[in-house]
Design goal:
The chain is of the alpha+beta class. It has three domains: about 90 residues, no CATH class; about 55 residues, no CATH class; about 250 residues, no CATH class. It has 15 helices and eleven strands. A five-stranded mixed beta sheet has the order 9-6-5-10-11. A two-stranded antiparallel sheet has the order 1-2. A hairpin with a 7-residue loop joins strand 5 and strand 6. The chain is elongated. It starts with a strand and ends with a helix.
């Protein structure tokens, strides 16, 4: 016997569930024997059509309830009167909804009840659509985000065009930045005995014609116990971390403030010992020094990853390069004096000015950070942190993957900073989950 199914929308009185106040069929179709993956489930077109019909019913009912609540003028208490309709569109995650909203007016004083989706809700988009657009816009180029949203909606929707995604991403990111600012007063509940802090930066092409690039700064803070090994044998990972990022030209105020908030969320207190690893740049150490008064004590370490990379990247003739690389042995053991002597000998052995300048530059780097170069070998042997390779992966996810992977892209500070705020929230455990509703509701 052939079978069919019918999906029906019903509304009823909450006090009398058995009394149906309205009923509307949404979808009807045959139940057939599935033969492959195409006909086992409901096709996506029908799923969206069903969602469209169901949402139309729900939105229509809610709009009627809202408008039926307007009986008297809030200004003069006279009776309100209906006079025509406004056609307005509401955009949800997968569907667009055309609404005919009653116009209601007071003939005595002229007051008119809001009668468009935007004037009623302060937006014409659902919260979830804004959340998805902001998440995608912070993660992927705007045009790629547009294609993904169109793919899942199975239609080209103007609400998902790349300009709209850009606007939503920037608006939500700006609100997240304000939320971050307000979080300075958060109370530490679970104090951390020890924390690891990595501060780093990345240069991004800028729209400023006077400059080639601008520097975005990031910080990552986590508890040592959050560093877990991957059972599959790939690189270790962090089970919990908090991030901050900024590209503002504000004398580092936002990155410092964000780093402090991130540290507080990880349990920073006056009893906490922090191990800070940086690449040696003065602006990175400035962030660390701003956090120092808030903790019990701070260990400063010139990150071995950056130290070794700077050594590797010095371009010299093979004979000089081989001698330079032997200096790595002394640095690994924290023997700065011997490293400086070897570098001086190398300068004297070099004949070309450009090679001398490169060696001198590295020597200055060592001299400027000599108080932060430790015995990396002993520290590794003791199982203590000595490198920021995990933070490097976070810098990659916060800055490089979104902002540097596309060579043609240039950024302004105003356009990039909201994206960095979103990416930092998304990459911090629980941050985006706790913030997105507040961020979305406060966007214009």
């Amino acid at each position: 016997m052939a079978q069919r199914y019918r999906i029906i929308f019903q509304s009823y009185d909450d006090n009398k569930p058995s009394k149906i106040t309205s009923e509307k069929p949404l979808l009807e179709d045959a139940l057939t024997v599935p033969t492959n993956c195409f006909d086992f489930s409901m096709p996506m077109e029908k799923q969206i059509a069903l969602l469209q019909a169901a949402q139309d019913c729900v939105i229509d009912k809610k709009m009627n309830i809202l408008q039926d609540s307007h009986e008297e003028c809030p200004k003069c208490n006279q009776k309100l009167h209906k006079f025509g309709f406004h056609t307005s569109t509401f955009y949800d995650v997968f569907t667009d909804h055309e609404l005919e909203i009653k116009r209601i007016k007071c003939y005595s004083c002229g007051y008119e009840v809001p009668s468009t989706v935007r004037t009623i809700l302060k937006t014409n988009q659902s919260a979830d659509l804004k959340r998805i657009q902001a998440s995608l816009g912070a993660t992927l180029p705007y045009r790629e985000s547009e294609k993904i949203l169109d793919l899942f909606s199975m239609d080209t929707r103007k609400i998902n065009n790349h300009d709209r995604i850009k606007h939503v991403t920037e608006s939500v990111g700006k609100v997240v930045s304000k939320i971050n600012e307000a979080e300075k007063k958060i109370a530490v509940i679970d104090e951390a005995k020890e924390l690891i802090l990595n501060v780093d930066g990345g240069h991004i092409k800028t729209t400023d014609k006077k400059k080639r690039s601008m520097e975005a700064m990031t910080s990552v803070i986590y508890r040592p116990e959050a560093l877990l090994s991957n059972p599959k044998g790939t690189r270790n990972y962090l089970s919990s971390k908090n991030c901050s990022a900024s590209v503002k030209d504000d004398n580092q105020q936002e990155i410092i403030s964000g780093t402090i908030v991130a540290a507080l969320k990880q349990g920073l207190s006056k009893n906490t010992h922090i191990t800070a690893l940086c690449d040696g740049a003065a602006n990175c150490w400035n962030v660390v020094e701003a956090v120092t008064p808030l903790c019990g004590n701070m260990t400063y370490i010139l990150d071995w990853f950056h130290l070794a990379m700077k050594l590797e990247n010095i371009s010299l003739p093979k004979k000089l390069k081989d001698k330079l690389m032997r200096i790595k042995w002394h640095l690994w053991r924290g023997n700065i004096e011997n490293a400086q002597k070897r570098l001086q000998q190398l300068i004297e052995a070099a004949s070309q000015e450009k090679h001398i300048e490169r060696i001198k530059k590295f020597m200055n780097y060592i001299t400027n950070n000599c108080d932060k170069i430790i015995n990396y070998k002993e520290r590794k042997k003791a199982g203590l942190i000595f490198t920021s390779n995990l933070a490097e992966s976070t810098v990659e996810s916060l800055i490089n993957r979104r902002c540097k992977g596309h060579q043609h892209m240039r950024w302004s500070r105003e356009g990039l900073n909201p994206i960095l705020q979103l990416r930092a929230a998304i990459n911090s455990k629980g941050d985006w989950t706790s913030k997105w509703k507040t961020a979305v509701i406060n966007t214009i």
